[in-house]
Design a protein that fits this description.
single chain; 641 residues; alpha/beta; five-stranded parallel β-sheet; three-stranded antiparallel β-sheet; 51% helix; binds adenosine-5'-diphosphate; binds magnesium ion
């Protein structure tokens, strides 16, 4: 690699992209492409939408199950970064888009409100990055501290005409610095004013400004609007713009984004600039320099307690009136929550092996901690329904309407365990481990420890410990038991499929009151009642319930087949569960003996090794993690037998 070549190449590219000219040249550029004249909200909306925006596909199972077939807009820009935040993102983008149409919302502050770790800062960062990443440039007056739109040079009397001729909207007044230069240097001949093209950069303080929360003592409005350079005051008069240091957040973020981090940690007086910035699109210039035109997206975030406190102060009404609040709750969808942790782990330096279900049990905990209990079902069931899973009860898919559950728990997702709490526990489990892997039990233990140490409220601590020590532990043992048994069944899929075919034949014959024809001998015989029952009892169907189940299954499958769809043992959730239960039960004893044995005979040792092998090749364990999990299973699953 030739470093010098690379450097030169980059420099050439950068040069090609840079542009400079006079105001007249700029007018010609606008004539060619009026789209370069844009206010900030529109720029942001266009930038994000450029990546693609489509209604959620109907073929996405989440669409029907979780979004009520609502064609929610999916913004590709956020797709690989955020999970389960589709509703929040759609709301944010709806605000940005509507502000782009210069409606009332363009004069409002966007406020993201939600609990710690719900992704507020990450969403704000992502929006700021959109501007940085886009190859979008803005044209601005050369040397202007607020990088203003060159069209500000046009006198009011000419604006209508230019606006028509160019097909663009013109608003805003020349800043005092450029006005001074125009007079001094160009004698008012604004057509000669130089124009340049610049990009957005957070670090370069171009078009993106961040205001961290400041305590009452260090709060100084100059952080927002800039200041006067006292050292220049003996050279110039106080009203001379050359004394201005326009480096406040509203100056830097002009034409882009101004972000207020944890906005209500500031004193209200500090925030008054926001009022004029939104209402009049003006911010005060320091000293006696009047007002400065401002155009930017004002973005802020806070948590619920701060919001409530702020809202209850009636002196804050004026600011409240300027706020568009969007709630950013925690994710309540297990599968999406898991993706968050996978993303975080991918980005960390941890390279240890995670045994299957490790992330899942952690995510189960955070999601369940956030759910409100319901009369309609237990917490685990609710979690599954929120995840779009089918919950089987007495042979039927349990019909609990997700809408009802959501309805009865309106504020759900605004409290509970945060993403950071979970990642910390995973990190700790990884660091504590003397091995190169972690298992679900280690994460559960780590979570238990952390809850005991960190959750102060008795009631919460008790509730969380019960979720971990009881609900999740039991659910994990169930998953593990079925996984081990599956690893024990040779050619699991084939066996399941053959059981399915057999069941369907028998159930159909039973339902239509016909004889069975043996596939091999062609002999006629009665449906195999014993076999049918053995399958059905796996999901608790006994007695008179069997008739209904058999005809349901038959009807369901034949409808599918008539539509030309293929059916297999996974087609109907209750039957799938029954078949798996049957298969698992059939090898349970063997699995138990082989796993538990302290000293295995040759035959058992062989079976044990095969099982480890399957767990490695089919389920994603390493030999070591498989052994640890099996030891755990034999100590906990089959204790009483
Ligand atoms: N829905 C989500 N999708 C992807 N990542 C998320 C999600 N929610 C939270 N995170 C991640 O969790 C971490 C904490 O989020 P952060 O934005 O700092 O929270 P907040 O500012 O709300 O306290 C970040 O790494 C963020 O990327
Ligand atoms: Mg934050």
């Amino acid at each position: 690699m030739d470093f010098l070549d690379l450097i030169k190449q980059q420099r050439k590219e950068a040069k090609k992209e840079s542009w400079s000219g006079t105001f007249i040249d700029y007018l010609n550029e606008v004539k060619k492409n009026p789209d370069i004249v844009k206010l900030s909200h529109k720029r942001l909306a266009d930038t994000v939408e450029k990546y693609g925006v489509n209604p959620m596909s109907e073929s996405d199972p989440r669409c029907k199950k979780l979004f009520d077939s609502d064609k929610i807009k999916i913004y590709d820009y956020f797709k690989d970064e955020f999970y389960g935040h589709e509703r929040v993102i759609a709301k944010i983008m709806r605000y940005v888009r509507s502000a782009a149409m210069k409606g009332e919302e363009s004069r409002q502050v966007l406020l993201l409100m939600g609990p710690v770790g719900s992704g507020k800062s990450a969403l704000a960062d992502s929006l700021k990055k959109a501007l940085e990443k886009s190859n979008d440039y803005i044209y601005n007056l050369e040397g202007c501290p607020v990088r203003e739109e060159p069209l500000h040079l046009l006198p009011r009397s000419l604006r209508d005409e230019f606006s028509k001729a160019l097909g663009v909207h013109i608003e805003g007044d020349l800043c005092p610095v450029c006005r001074h230069r125009l007079m001094e240097e160009f004698g008012g001949e604004y057509e000669k004013f130089p124009v340049v093209r610049t990009s957005f950069s957070l670090r370069g303080r171009r078009g993106i400004a961040v205001v961290p929360p400041m305590d009452a003592n260090s709060q100084d409005v100059s952080a927002l609007i800039g200041s006067e350079d006292i050292s220049k005051l003996d050279k110039y008069s106080e009203s001379d713009p050359r004394v201005l240091n326009l480096d406040g957040a509203f100056n830097v973020g002009n034409r882009g984004i101004v972000e207020f981090v944890e906005i209500f940690k500031n004193e209200i007086e500090f925030l008054h600039t926001i009022l004029t910035a939104t209402q009049e699109k003006n911010v005060p210039a320091p000293g006696k320099n009047g007002m400065l035109y401002f155009d930017g997206v004002i973005l802020s975030h806070c948590n619920e307690a701060e919001w409530n406190r702020f809202k209850s102060e009636h002196t804050n009404e004026a600011v409240l009136d300027r706020i568009v609040k969007i709630e950013v709750p925690y994710v309540l969808e297990l599968t999406q929550e898991m993706k968050i942790y996978e993303k975080m782990l991918r980005r960390s330096d941890f390279r240890a092996h995670l045994a299957p279900h490790t992330i899942k049990v952690a995510a189960m905990f955070s999601v369940m901690s956030r759910l409100k209990s319901s009369q309609k079902c237990d917490l685990l069931t609710k979690m599954k329904i929120y995840d779009g899973q089918e919950v089987i009860e007495k042979g039927r898919v349990r019909k609990i309407d997700i809408k009802d559950l959501r309805e009865e728990a309106k504020q759900e997702g605004m409290d509970g365990i945060s993403t950071r709490f979970i990642t910390k526990a995973i990190d700790n489990a990884l660091t504590d481990s003397d091995k190169s892997f972690i298992t679900p039990m280690r994460v559960i233990d780590s979570l238990i420890r952390q809850v005991k140490e960190q959750i102060v409220k008795d009631e919460d601590r008790k509730h969380y410990l019960e979720i971990l020590q009881k609900t999740i532990r039991e659910e994990y043992l169930k998953m593990l038991e079925s996984e081990i048994a599956k690893a024990f069944v040779t050619a699991y899929e084939e066996q399941a499929q053959s059981l399915f075919n057999n069941y369907l034949d028998n159930a159909e014959a039973y339902t239509t009151k016909q004889k069975m024809k043996d596939r091999v001998t062609n002999e006629e015989r009665e449906p195999d009642e014993k076999f049918l029952r053995a399958i059905e009892e796996q999901i608790g169907i006994t007695g008179s319930a069997k008739d209904g189940f058999r005809s349901d299954v038959t009807a369901y499958m034949f409808t599918k087949m008539r539509r030309g769809q293929t059916v297999d043992y996974k087609s109907y959730e209750p039957l799938k569960e029954a078949i798996e239960g049957y298969l698992i039960a059939s090898v349970k004893d063997m699995a138990r003996i082989v796993t538990k044995s302290k000293s295995r005979d040759n035959e058992q040792q062989k079976k044990y090794s095969e099982m480890i092998q399957t767990m490695v090749s089919d389920y994603g364990y390493t030999p070591e993690s498989a052994e640890e999990v099996l030891t755990f299973a034999s100590n906990n699953l089959w204790r009483d037998s």
